[in-house]
Amino acid sequence: MKKEECFYLGKIVSKFSFKGEVLIKLDTDEPESYVKMESVFVEYNNNLIPFFIERCSLHKSDLLRVKFEDVDSEEDADDLMKTELYLPLTLLPKLEGDQFYFHEIIGFTVMDIVFGEVGVIKAVNDSTAQALFEIDRNGTEILIPMNDEFINKIDRVSKTIIVSTPEGLIDLYL
User: Fold this and answer.
1) Which fold has domain 102-173?
2) What are the boundaries of each domain within the chain?
3) Cβ–Cβ contacts within 10 Å for residue 108, how many?
4) What is the chain's Cα-based Rg?
5) Nearest C-alpha neighbor of 66 from the set 8, 16, 6
6) What CATH number has the domain spanning 3-91?
7) SS3 state at 75
8) Are 69 and 52 in contact (CB under 8 A)?
9) pLDDT class of 27 with cuts at 50, 70, 90
10) Which terminus has fewer CB within 10 Å in the chain: N or C?
11) Does the structure show a pLDDT above 90 at 103?
12) pTM > 0.70: yes or no
């Protein structure tokens, strides 16, 4: 399995018991959706390795307490600390309407209702307090906050996002 075919699920953040259990910080609003997983891919030495799950439960509502098969000691669990977990994209639930996953809008054209065609989304920057569309307009980067008030419509068929940005925002970059 290649990383491009997967989505980031979370990260192993700490050991839980001397029997090899670990706690996983999930990157999701619905951690309960992942309690019944049978396996995950763990990024280990730049490879995705499948790990099978013996048991799994929610811990303090936002962490997942997991016991992997063949991880039976603190030393085994130590080896997995801070590793990232992935699942195949096919396991993501389909989103309807104006909801979207960041990876699915890469390549969409952004149209502003006043400005017109802004450019093509090349990435989503979610490392800031407000996630941003990173848009390429003929070699110029334009950043637009991914704010619900700005997004009017997502058209998956024509791969277009219609936005209504504050006056002058796009002009700042041109």
Assistant:
1) SH3 type barrels. (2.30.30)
2) 3-91, 102-173
3) 19
4) 20
5) 16
6) 2.40.30.60
7) helix
8) yes
9) confident
10) C
11) no
12) no
